[in-house]
User: Fold this.
Amino acid sequence: MTYWDNLLSSRISRRRSLALTGGGAAAAFLVACGGGGSSEKSPQEKEAASALPKQVDTTKQAVAGGEFHERIATDSNYYLYDSNFNTSGNPGIAGWIYPHLTKAKLGNVDSLPTGDVVGDFAETFELSPDGLKATFKIRPNQKWDPRAPTNGRVADSEDALWSYNHWAAGNARRLFLVNSINPDGPVTSVSTPDKNTFVMNLAFPWAPLMPLLAGNPFPSIMPREAESFDTRNTSRGIGAWIIDDKQQSNYIRLKKNPDWYEKPRPFIDTYWFHVIPDYAAALGQFKAGKLDYFQPNQDDILATKKDVPSLVVGQAAKWRNNPGAWIFFGFKEGSPFRDERVRKAFSMEIDRDLWIDTFANRQKFESEGLPVATNWFSWLGKGYPDIYLDPKKDMGDGGVNFKFDPKEAKKLLTAAGFTSPIKTKWTVPDINQGNMPEAVRAGIHDLKDFNMEDVSVLTYEPTFNQQVRESKGKFDGVAYVGWGENGDP
Assistant:
């Protein structure tokens, strides 16, 4: 019996929802919908009881106040408080309390991100006509956390300067910006001509600058007083939320920042993150009404909805269609993957449709009347509709390299001089352990053209990023790392 036979027969527990895996997303998360004691259902409750209610922007009807409760699996990662230590796209709690210079411009619930950005910590920004100077005007009257050592101080450009230098001194992704470390990085220097102005000087025009500054892993803005405290476990924010209280391994409690510039937001007074490591316990808390939002395993969504009909099933935003991962090939001297035919053969031994159907639970969703759109990943995902190339129809002859075709793969390997299994290492970061990358590895291994018994798990940051992702092929074997779409390609 092959790995896939075992996988499909046992219906393994899914590690993440479809919003973060196979293609289109049918039902990616659940939200509690509170009900009163009356037996007469309100229009909202009737809508919630449907399989997949229409998403409607109700911002104009929002009433301020109340609490919201959510689960996190752990609070042990230090980047929960300082996103500058984090190289992933998820800033953790830091994203709630610290702004960036810019932020993505979002539309209504049905719109797709365009890559356009607006001001955040900086109220306005502009590029010089030659593209070699970026000038940011700091938003006036922003007040840092009222507690010491910031004491409600008004923010200024010196905070942006300190934050950039803090990030550039240690973040692994500084290679993307800092020219003195990497000649492909655009930023040669930063300065503060006055308290209201922050400037970046560039070695060359660089189109992604403003969108990338809008989010992780690029610099979030912290107070310069952070020099005096441990930013990994202490915060003095200026964003929409302020960390009000925390108990290690128990909870993190946020309160709304009354001085935040985008009034009347945030609407909720208090936001709780409850630390619940065990998935089953968290699901039980959600069903009992003690959590307001939860992202169940894909196999559990329909059953949970049936157990608690008042829950609202949410469909993932269109732009988050995400097929899972990038695969890197080692290019060291003597590597078989230096031969293009070997790389093509490897790709042809990935059964993309089987992988998607397995982790999306597509047949079950569609039997319940919930359509699941899927697509294959190429170099970007379907979430970028203007530039995404569908391997099934947009790539011409190149599309054949994405089709599951073990016979053709074997022909390519034979032509490349490989008549016995290629023994190679398989490497994943610790954040991507689980059934999804294992399905790719084992599915190929079972075909016996590649022997990947040697499995290595590396700490994502800094080991995997430095030794694999940023190494330009200076590693052995094949590596897999999860991939998520940002607001701008």
Remarks:
- The radius of gyration is 24 Å.
- Residues 157-170 form the longest helix (14 residues).
- The longest strand covers residues 187-194.
- The domain at 3-22+321-482 is CATH 3.10.105.10 (Dipeptide-binding Protein; domain 3).
